[in-house]
Amino acid sequence: MAQRYRGKNMKPKLVVVGNGMAGMRTVEQLLQIAPDLYDITVFGAEPHGNYNRIMLTPVLYGAKNFADIVIHDFDWYRSRAITLHCGPAKAVVAIDRTRRQVIARDGTTADYDKLLIATGSLPLLLDIPGRDCDGVMGFRDIADVETMIAKSARRRHAVVLGGGLLGLEAANGLLKRGMQVTVVNRADHLLNRQLDAQAGEFLRRHLAETGMEFQLGATIAAIASRAGHVVEVELDNGQKLPADLLVMATGIRPNIGLAEAAGLECRRGIVVDDAMQTSDPAVYSVGECIEHRGELFGLVAPVYEQARICADQLAGGTGSYRTGFAATMLKVTGIDLFSVGDFDGDADSETLRFVDYGLGIYKKVVLRGDVPIGVILYGDTGDANGYLRLVRDGVPVSDRRRRLLFGGATTAEAA
């Protein structure tokens, strides 16, 4: 590794590749605990400051504009003496680990003592015949949102492939922009990773009332275009749907190409240890691009915890990352949802349900013996933290089984 002489007033150099929520959360945390420790340089492929990707949907349907979701504007970087290189020409294309240097597309270089890779994820676009035409896209950044808004102003029919959270958010935004929207989902019900079939049907009925249409248990077999622009999709069940816009929301994959090319250990993601350190001790990584103990990440809560631990490590601390208990708390088109654990159950489990069609409330608790192992809440998530504690800690509930689906029975006092 390169050796450098540093005078008394020279700070070690921290370079961050990725100007998104994970990398900049790490920088933000680092500035709180060690504000003068590093000379910081940030590279981002988008021509903006850091913004909240979770809030892209309100921008899509017009409730917010881009300025409303910016977390750190250019003045924020300037006032903290952070050098920001942003835009497509400033995207980092190579890491020279011997020289400890990163190289951007336009030739800009930056030396580092510590490097943080926070390159996030890429949309998983399925290899469907006819895919390479105008109007077929993913949904990951503000540029995608701007494209969808422009298309919705002069086009009528939208098809969204994927009935997960991202797909439903895109569909809802396009619907509110006045498009006729059909969601195509390979699974037989919506949000199949977070909900069971009955809760998924609750959600489908709610969304159908807004005008959204669905093709469930199906996928797209071919894409037809005219003059280079998508006009129709054919499903594997033989049906054909008009499509002036096709949004693929079929998942994400860690963006590990840069790390792989630099010779860092990668599997499905960039492999990191409990200190968020890669196979190179000078290189750290956080966010959707990493793999920690065999697990990948797509939710904000664990990513922000990774950022906290990484900042502590960069500041000389001994913080250690542990994957938290997986639970999902969502708000989809105004409906609150919560799920945790094994909510499908098996032959050795028992299921308790509460259903109120009038109020649009569905609750399900799966028990093994007297211990809850999985929960779904639809429409009423007020006791979500209590249910999470019961499942996470394996709390027996024999004394309150009859009240378990109703408020108050999840608290410690209810025991």
Automatic annotation (TrEMBL):
Residues 327-393 form the NADH-rubredoxin oxidoreductase C-terminal domain. Gene3D superfamilies: 3.30.390.30, FAD/NAD(P)-binding domain. It comes from the Bacteria. GO terms for molecular function: oxidoreductase activity. Residues 13-293 form the FAD/NAD(P)-binding domain. It holds the Pfam family Rubredoxin_C. InterPro entries: FAD-bd_OxRdtase, FAD/NAD-bd_sf, FAD/NAD-binding_dom, FAD/NAD-linked_Rdtase_dimer_sf, Rubredoxin_C. Keywords: FAD, Flavoprotein. Its cofactor is FAD. Belongs to the FAD-dependent oxidoreductase family. This is Nitrite reductase.
